C-alpha cells in the first residue's frame, strides 16, 4: 500500500477499471432497458414506428445470446 495521497483522478481510474470488469450481461441489460424506455419517449424527430423498428433490429441481433434477459425486460416493463 502506498502512502501517496489519493486524488479525484484516482477515483475515476478505479471506477473505469470496475466498469471494464463488469460482466457483459449487465452491460447488455442496461443497454436494452435504455432502448426499451426510449421507444416510449416522444420525439420531434422520430415516430413511435421508427423507434420500434430500431428497437426490433437491435433486439433481433441480441436475441440468440440474451433471449431470457430480453424476455424478462420486455415482460417487466
UniProtKB/TrEMBL annotation:
GO terms for cellular component: nuclear cap binding complex; nucleus. GO terms for molecular function: mRNA binding; RNA cap binding. Transmembrane segments: none annotated. InterPro entries: CBP80. One of its GO terms (biological process) is mRNA export from nucleus. PANTHER family: CAP BINDING PROTEIN, NUCLEAR CAP-BINDING PROTEIN SUBUNIT 1. This is Uncharacterized protein. It comes from Ancylostoma caninum (Dog hookworm).
